[in-house]
Design brief:
22% helix, 3 helices, 179 residues, extended, 7-stranded mixed beta sheet
């Protein structure tokens, strides 16, 4: 009822003209960011891996992805031991305030952020113990420990406040990694 009353008051050409004029006055141009955020990471060769033939490992990975696509399975449904991976990717992050520097393994298949396989978590002024325990099983290992909320510094312009952090009291399957 309201729709017909509005259109009855304005002929459609005039209404369309008004809408176009209003839309043309809206500033829809994208905003340019003055600051470009960059995150650095390191590619490391796992010299303790069982198979150091990079080309053969890459061919096997590509074949596994091809096999998964031809059988309608997701490529992520297959797993391999990270301890036997020829290459791994790491990044330096600061946790806490003042920040303690940790080298973290970049794992795009996991949403967990945790430390303690090599360097123990250090409680700082920004650390909040949630009182919860955490336990995660991966295809090639596991960790368990306490959960904290803390400040994570990825770069000077990218700081995450109250990020969940697992503080590993036990970890298994990550001993061969050079991190």
């Amino acid at each position: 009822m309201i729709k017909s009353e509005i259109f009855g008051m304005f002929p459609s050409k005039i209404f369309l003209s008004i809408v176009l004029v209003l839309l043309s006055t809206v500033n829809a141009s994208p905003q340019r960011r003055e600051t470009v955020l960059t995150l650095s990471f390191t590619t490391r060769m796992n010299v303790r891996a069982n198979d150091l033939n990079i080309a053969a490992a890459d061919r096997a990975r590509a074949q596994a992805m091809l096999d998964a696509s031809t059988t309608n399975k997701r490529a992520s449904s297959s797993s391999f031991s990270i301890a036997d991976a020829v290459m791994c990717y790491t990044t330096q992050v600061g946790i806490g305030s003042p920040a303690t520097q940790y080298t973290l393994l970049i794992d795009t298949g996991s949403s967990n952020t945790w430390v303690g396989a090599k360097t123990a978590y250090k409680v700082t002024s920004t650390s909040v113990d949630t009182g919860h325990t955490v336990s995660v099983q991966y295809g090639s290992g596991s960790f368990s420990g306490e959960e904290y909320l803390d400040t994570v510094t990825l770069s000077s312009d990218l700081v995450i406040i109250q990020q969940s952090i697992g503080s590993a009291s036990q970890s298994q399957g990550f001993n061969n990694l050079q991190v």
